[in-house]
């Protein structure tokens, strides 16, 4: 599994309990599951941190709510249907966990909005937390129906029900901030007839729809302008006959803490758990051997750990230009650079080990030669001594004088010493020869990675490029994974009836103007004007929409664009801190090829199989195939550099390349021509300009906060600072959950509450504080710009 820290969601104990139960449940169900087709050498695909817009993902089971309808054909391992998991997430602690809140303490937002509670005695805070958690539990138990305060009050147990004013404030806070009464549910109270203000929402993606629903509920008049002829934005589902495939957002990345969990109970979402086993095939159809697969995957994770060590322990995040002095002309290091440097260091280490090995061999051989020379010398001496000794002992003289006896005994002593030295040298020779044989039998590897190893490693790199929607050379070494601690728990799932069911359901009851593209936003102290024109006729007369505020949910790629047709002009121009953050943060590209066949010719029990490319440059080309739907449909992914290259290639060529890859894996006679095919080009889409955001080289997580901050018109000297008029939402504006559907949805809830606080007043303000105007909030707020503006 690629290096991915598990979700923290502010308290680890609850998550660990959930993961333990999920592991036990998966173990039990795997023993009961029926044997299917055996796929050679399966592997676990690294869980990518993001698959959002253009694979925007999501999250885990909730508290004590009714079960989510997740249909699994053969394996009944739906974690959110498991009774043990439901029992764990049942209750106040589970409700807080599912709502991404700490069970036993106030968040900074709550402390700011309830200063009377945060500054009060511990008992007051305990009462607050119990009421808050109980209201969350009541909502999660029945999210299909509005939780009104009149129904909530009787459900609060004594003695916590004694302060009805506090309960009403907490209920209003949770509702305004999108913790309860969000999504698609039965309203028990009609919408306010008297409107407190008017808001224009630009973009009918998941963020814009979520915000519009919230603001309409709070008593604001809302008009949504959408340039496309449909809602959903980068959530787009292909439907034709019995075929179905998501062209954009596709994966729900766990359900624990995920608002999509609640949406799935409100909407007919047919969730299906994705089996993570994934066989890897080479271009000739051979499966990558298991030992080779596991070895390269371990090395992949070691490389990522090494780059993390370089960045966070050694603070190696900047390099200087050639010839520059220390600290001058430095530039930030990318993840791709760091990985290649570590690989080169490993290759250098291989060469150094080879040199050290050869030196050891040469040293031993030198010792062996010296030893043999000494043995030859000793042998010559032994022969001579033995000859002399024999001559003296065989002498005809019967008697020897004392001198002769001394000489004879000296020869015998010398002979014994020479034999002893010979034995020692013989023993040394054996030891040296044994060491030489050992070295020669296990020489170090000639290369760090063979060509096959590098191809498999490149597959893992392509998978990481898919997760981040860009080449590794574009990712910030220090900050590329800054949101890892906030990943949701639970298995990844897909929406078998198409993810577009979510935005379609959220669009009900809203005033949405399709085929209407915003061209300019003018804002001042008295409100905003949005100039819009028909998407297909940009040069026709513009329609001017006037309102108190505008919520911009345009994709980051569109905000980056400076040329028509997708460019939107702001007057006055956006402040430098905002425009610079827009340019710093990255916006990536990921494309898909949908292939609809007459019959299934692949292993129907596998949701994934990989294709190992032949070169580093093409590693992201059709590297992963998904089998997710009931109909015979395959989805091929194109990531990294290949995603941009293939946008300039015709559909016929791309589909032909797909078929060639599949024939290489399954055989020429097995793979038919597809009956239908679709090729996405998200970078070329004028209303998207890419897939989803990433932390680019030179950027950081702080840029998400800057993009989320609202903009106020320039202040006039001598007058109070004006209120913000231009607000921003979308997956690129939420630091903890970027590049995901749930992140975009949560950003819409955030901005809906922020705008309502400003235009409608705060219904949860302390009794001693006025309720009109914006209430204290921990949401990023800025008029002329955040204090952290560079």
TrEMBL record:
Subcellular location(s) of the protein: Chromosome; Nucleus
Keyword terms: Chromatin regulator, Chromosome, Coiled coil, FAD, Flavoprotein, Nucleus, Oxidoreductase, Phosphoprotein, Repressor, Transcription, Transcription regulation
Biased composition (Acidic residues): 71-80
Annotated signal peptide: none
Domain SWIRM: 92-191
Cofactor: FAD
Major enzyme class: oxidoreductase
GO biological processes: positive regulation of cell population proliferation; regulation of DNA-templated transcription
Bias kind Basic and acidic residues: ranges: 8-20, 29-53
Pfam entry (one): SWIRM
Protein task: Histone demethylase that specifically demethylates 'Lys-4' of histone H3, a specific tag for epigenetic transcriptional activation, thereby acting as a corepressor. Acts by oxidizing the substrate by FAD to generate the corresponding imine that is subsequently hydrolyzed. Demethylates both mono- and di-methylated 'Lys-4' of histone H3.
Name of the featured protein: Lysine-specific histone demethylase
Protein species of origin: Tetragonisca angustula
